[in-house]
């Protein structure tokens, strides 16, 4: 795998794994760091940008759904409760968008709940960037021990 192909694969995997599709961007990031395709800072940037754009795609889908099915029309109490929590905590809750299982739907629900795009982008990027930074720091530490 060439450097460019590896970086493109990292970006694509990061993007897709942050949508409602399954993905394993962490494994590709660890592999790329181990093989030293690029400096860790570049790997971090590519993975963070891809994952953030994927999260914002979920947000955009939620925003689009909200235009057709307003949140006030929700019937199930669990859905109403979820929207209430999003309204209560606002955009900082998107720091948790990196979490497995709940992160992707959280981005979609944030768009549906009307969380503004710029704060959503900021908190999604911050949460996802911190996760990748921790992962790269762990890999770097483990590689230096061998």
UniProtKB/TrEMBL annotation:
Q: Which domain of life is it from?
A: Bacteria
Q: Which Pfam families match?
A: VTT_dom
> Mind telling me which PANTHER family this protein's record contains?
ALKALINE PHOSPHATASE LIKE PROTEIN (PTHR42709), INNER MEMBRANE PROTEIN YQAA (PTHR42709:SF4)
Positions of transmembrane segments? 42-65, 93-115, 121-143
Q: Which part of the chain is the VTT domain?
A: 41-136
Does Transmembrane show up as a keyword for this record? yes
Which keywords does this chain's UniProt record carry? Answer: Membrane, Transmembrane, Transmembrane helix
Q: What is this protein called?
A: DedA family protein
Lineage, broadest ranks: Bacteria, Pseudomonadati, Pseudomonadota, Gammaproteobacteria, Chromatiales
GO CC annotations? plasma membrane
């Amino acid at each position: 795998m060439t450097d460019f192909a590896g970086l493109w694969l990292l970006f694509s995997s990061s993007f897709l794994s942050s949508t409602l599709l399954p993905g394993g961007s962490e494994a590709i990031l660890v592999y790329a760091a181990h093989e030293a395709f690029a400096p860790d800072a570049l790997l971090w940037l590519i993975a963070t940008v891809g994952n953030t754009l994927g999260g914002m795609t979920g947000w955009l889908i939620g925003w689009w759904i909200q235009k057709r099915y307003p949140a006030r029309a929700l019937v199930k109490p669990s859905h109403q409760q979820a929207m209430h929590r999003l309204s209560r905590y606002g955009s900082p809750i998107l720091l948790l968008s990196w979490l497995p299982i709940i992160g992707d739907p959280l981005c979609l629900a944030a768009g549906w709940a009307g969380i503004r795009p710029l704060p959503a982008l900021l908190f999604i990027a911050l949460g996802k960037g911190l996760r990748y930074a921790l992962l790269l720091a762990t890999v770097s530490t483990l590689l230096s021990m061998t």
